[in-house]
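INFO batch 0412 | record 1 of 1 | parsing
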Amino acid sequence: AMSYLLKEKLQLVLDDYKMGFVESLSVKSLVLGGRSPHFGGVRVLEGNDDEVILEAMFSLQCEKEEVVINVKTSGPDFTLRINDIYISGTLKLVFKPFKEELPGFGAIIVSLFEDPDMGFNIKVLGGDVKALPGVDNIIDNTIRTAVLDVLVWPNRYVYPVLPGDYSYLELRPVGVLDVSLIEATNLMNTDVLGKSDPFALLFVRLKTERIKRSSTKKNSLHPVWNEGFFIEVDDPYSQYLTIRLMDEETVKNAEFIGEAKYPLKELKPHEPKGLWLDLVYNPKTSAPEKSRGEVHLVL
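INFO prediction complete | emitting tokens
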């Protein structure tokens, strides 16, 4: 029963996260082992009057567990097995609202404080993987993206404990971000012959239907777009706008140029703000990185 429930939940998640030439991901089977996660460093954090927040370190090493996924692409199809799964991080558990009935709260909100450390092994069971190079990397990136976008705060799962309507605890859009993509300059050239053909992906969440894509500017390291987008926002106090510059390719899907992030909490409603942001390989790292260009926005 638990395997079936997790299989259904995983399928719903994968339906929202498809990248590149992957058209669909179908969970064929899910096998659970008997190993439980290890918890440590539990502490109570200060929260609102109607909630209790627990922080807990956890780690889980899955040796017998495995997931088999059928992958449908624009070319050949594949069957992949995912096993040797490892994940560790910091859980955020919110117990709310308070109730008079035992256990004293109506629901549990489950999330992660930050990106977890995770790893897994991907093996091709059926299909010619050489016919579509990079499919394993795309699946790896899709799974990691889904985990981060679904579980890292403010994203969360809400599990009812007592009967009641707890839909208000779910993460849902509370506003819209108006983004004007003006231009980019000094872009790193990823082409051996000629110049890059850049386009931009803009998003707050990496769900497929919420990613905005600009037009492609051919053979340019200083593309000018002057294009506008509206992006839904769920939590302006903790979410970021991500701008990812890509080089459109004919042989493969696209090549990464650089990325920038901007915290939405720095914005004020109905007050446009012009920005030049540096594009880097990994905007989450605190280590100094070589610039891959700059992008001009009005938010």
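INFO post-check: DSSP finds two helices and 15 strands in the chain.
INFO record closed
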